[in-house]
């Protein structure tokens, strides 16, 4: 089974990824406008007819901006837990309810929603097993839960948050309350914490690591790579960053 992960956007401007298995695909979040989403799908060679559903991680606008309209226009079910569905104020005409840590099947993959720590009602990461590749998409985390860390240990392809550099955050323009929120257990993962969890989960097995959800104000790709490389021991050239909206990537399994 051929596997591709298409990252259409990653960051506070919007988040959207598509995992394609053969001729079927699943979208994870839809935080861009519908027009931008369709345009980037076309750039990536993805037809709307391939999509079989939208997995939602949590209700923040940069993850759900166009979920409702994408669902309606492309006739796709919205797939998430009940708390996230209610907090997002989605209509229930195309809803598939899931439960944390309960595996479910879609487009030939076994998928598990993993609990994360973020200031949302019931946020999650997604771990997908295609039978060939295991894929983790885990962002918007104040710290790494045991479930996410275990999934990172098993992942062949991992998109892991590396949102901010602590020094840049502390000296940056954000108000004090926002700085404290970002640097809290329900905020975001800094470069240091990302490097530490990557180091803890290193094995002899090859895997592809992508640093995701980088802050435009409090991080740079160079700083993220350098910090994570220094802490994890992974060579800098083996780390890649998903650099904000429009930096589309195709990751082949």
Question: Could you describe the largest sheet, including whether it forms a barrel?
Answer: 7 strands, mixed
Mean pLDDT comes to 93
Structural class: alpha/beta
Low-confidence stretches: none
For the secondary structure, the number of strands is 14
**Overall 3D shape:** globular
Fold topology:
Layout: E1 3-9, E2 16-21, E3 24-28, H1 34-43, E4 51-55, H2 61-64, H3 67-74, E5 78-80, H4 82-88, E6 95-97, E7 104-106, E8 109-115, E9 124-129, E10 134-138, H5 146-154, E11 157-161, H6 166-171, H7 176-182, H8 191-200, E12 208-212, H9 221-232, E13 239-241, E14 249-252
Parallel strand pairs: 3-4, 4-5, 5-6, 10-11, 11-12, 12-13
Antiparallel strand pairs: 1-2, 1-14, 2-3, 7-8, 8-9, 9-10
3D architecture notes:
With 253 residues, the protein is an alpha/beta fold. It has 9 helices and 14 strands. It has helices spanning 34-43, 61-64, 67-74, 82-88, 146-154, 166-171, 176-182, 191-200, 221-232; strands at residues 3-9, 16-21, 24-28, 51-55, 78-80, 95-97, 104-106, 109-115, 124-129, 134-138, 157-161, 208-212, 239-241, 249-252. The strands form 2 sheets. It has a 7-stranded mixed β-sheet. Strands 7-8-9-10-11-12-13 form a 7-stranded mixed β-sheet, covered by helices on one side. Strand 3 (24-28), helix 1 (34-43) and strand 4 (51-55) form a beta-alpha-beta unit. Helix 8 runs parallel beside helix 9. The longest helix has 12 residues, at 221-232. It is globular and about 45 Å long. The mean pLDDT is 93.
